[in-house]
Amino acid sequence: MTQVENTQKTHRTFLSSISVILGTTLLGAIVAYGGSYLKSKTWLAEAHVSAPDIALLGNYYALSSTYQFIKNKENQHQETEIVYQEFLKQLMSEEMIRRFWENTEYYKQKQTGEDHIDLALLEKLTKAIKFKSAQTLDVADSVSLTLENPKLATELLSSFIDQVNVETRKIVYSNLISQWKVLFEQVKKATEFNLGKNAQSALVLEDWNGKLQMMRSVSPLDEQFSAYRYLKKPTQPIMQRSPNRKCWASVGALIGFILSFFTLSLFNSRKKLINTL
Question: How far apart are the first and last CA of the chain?
């Protein structure tokens, strides 16, 4: 075989190898891209939240501030931060998330009556709600819900946030009421004690009477309470979260490329072995 023939054969082998690699890579991308249509679509609804303004706390702020004043206690943590931290605690609670799903019509309609199947579904739904804490000042805390229906994802995320807010209100109200009752009894006893002491100065007695009247005159807690404020409300997503068909195609192309390269290497090794025999 002449040098020209050898060169031509080498070129043909090279072009054949390139064709196999390109063809297999393209085939892998096409198969993977088509396979992505067999996977159920999912959509992600997301909301951004932050600590509430004082106005959002309703009457809770007034009572909490009064408590701190009468207690002669410096409030090292703002009321807004206290309630927001409790809100985040409930938002991330798996128990809270499970209770939410167990009471939704969505979960009830999907129940099969088989405990292991229903528990697996509940676990999947629990993991579908995720919280991401802000890492920098220019990024907000976010909570998201991934579901196969974009409208339902948005509605259920809003319902979940509302339920977390109600639970937060119950907890912080209960804590404040318990503290308030204890302090009220202390102030009442101190007023009665000083009233019965003839030598007690009028100024001290007036001070305790003033505190007692202040505590008696406050308005009860109302329901105008929000432990958070929206920086971005849940809105119906436009783009699906998964499957990411471009990603699927890329992975398929990579698998096709690796497979073709491996096949060609194996073929060439076998060919060399045959030629040596």
Answer: 19
